Amino acid sequence: MFASSQLGVDLGTMNVRLFSQTKGLLFDEPATVAYNRQADKLMAIGQKAKQMIGKTPPHVEVTYPLRNGVIADFDRAKALLQQVFKQSSKQLGLAFKKPDVVMSVPFHATSVERRSFYEIAKHCGAKHIQFIEEPVAAAIGADLPVGEPVANVVVHLGAGKTEAAIISFGGVVACRSLRIGGNQLDEDIMQYVRQHYSLLIGEQTAEQVKIEIGSAPGTVMEQSVTIHGRDFVTGFLKAVSLDPTEVQTAIKESLWQIAEAIRAVLEECPAELSGDIIDRGVVLTGGGALLHGIEQWLSTELHVPVHVAPNPAEAVAIGTGKALRAMPKRLDAAL
């Protein structure tokens, strides 16, 4: 009863995940909200709402309430988390009432931004709320020994931002945040297609291109994809074929900025911990870690071993779920 009432919440820019120590991952869907302004009514959340993007009449808004890892629309974010709790409660039953919540927040989140997360969790019925920084949660979820006096370098490649951190003794030694993530790569692809093919495509199309043939520089891929959109010169619909080298060209500038942010963190590493980094390397978490070839490319650029966590997209959610047991002192300090 006690263990099952402890929940980890990863309320991210593109996805929301709920983790229980006893049941595992309870909820994992897009952080999307569809709202009918005429009826003043919530229509859908998650995957159902995401499928409505770009396909609704003007009075139906489909939005992501978070931007760059922090809350941009308080009311929509609250409605989203309320529905997530409601849907997940069926799996936990009575143990879900007044849960203790561990919620991940960006390392550089301000006190005002943290307060917004706190208020939303309170509105949703949480009894006790504790915060944990996303890099620490990602490291715990990746099974790194964060409580030991060794350097753990984790790079969380999220949708709205990238956070690179060195963690030792349960605390963050150095951290760099960059407002470049998977969403920016999607935007890069959309701009490339618009500039080179005069074609307008949507966010979901760009995301699918990234997933299928997106890759880091130097990665060799043979597959190409056909995309459909509207020619903004003629106004007609048309289809074009994209190959992996074109997508590499589109996203390479953003990837270079991510690599530079990681390099800057490594340069801040204390001398006593530098040997650990050479031996243990860097661990990638977040959906961006699934980009083809990014592991090998970063290893070449940074001159250290780079590994992808076992479940990179779920690492933060898993880490929040384990956090009360693994790092109680760290959580108390974060409040």
TrEMBL record:
Concerning HAMAP family, the annotation shows: MreB
Instruction: Please give an example of a GO cellular component term from this record.
Output: cytoplasm
By its UniProt entry, which InterPro entries does this protein fall under? ATPase_NBD, MreB, MreB_MamK-like
Q: What does this protein do?
A: Forms membrane-associated dynamic filaments that are essential for cell shape determination. Acts by regulating cell wall synthesis and cell elongation, and thus cell shape. A feedback loop between cell geometry and MreB localization may maintain elongated cell shape by targeting cell wall growth to regions of negative cell wall curvature.
Instruction: List localization entries.
Output: Cytoplasm
Quote the subunit structure annotation. Forms polymers.
Name this protein carries in UniProt: Cell shape-determining protein MreB
- What PANTHER family does the entry give? CELL SHAPE-DETERMINING PROTEIN MREB
Pfam families listed in its UniProt record: MreB_Mbl
Keyword Nucleotide-binding present in the record's keywords: the answer is yes
- Which UniProt keywords are given for this protein, alphabetically ordered? ATP-binding, Cell shape, Cytoplasm, Nucleotide-binding
Keyword Cytoplasm on entry: yes
- In this chain, ATP is annotated as bound at 207-210, 287-290
Q: Per its UniProt record, what Gene3D superfamilies does this chain match?
A: 3.30.420.40
GO biological process: any one?
cell morphogenesis
Record SUPFAM superfamilies: Actin-like ATPase domain
- GO molecular function terms listed in the Swiss-Prot or TrEMBL record: ATP binding
Q: Which domain of life is it from?
A: Bacteria
Q: Which gene encodes it?
A: mreB
Record-stated family: Belongs to the FtsA/MreB family.
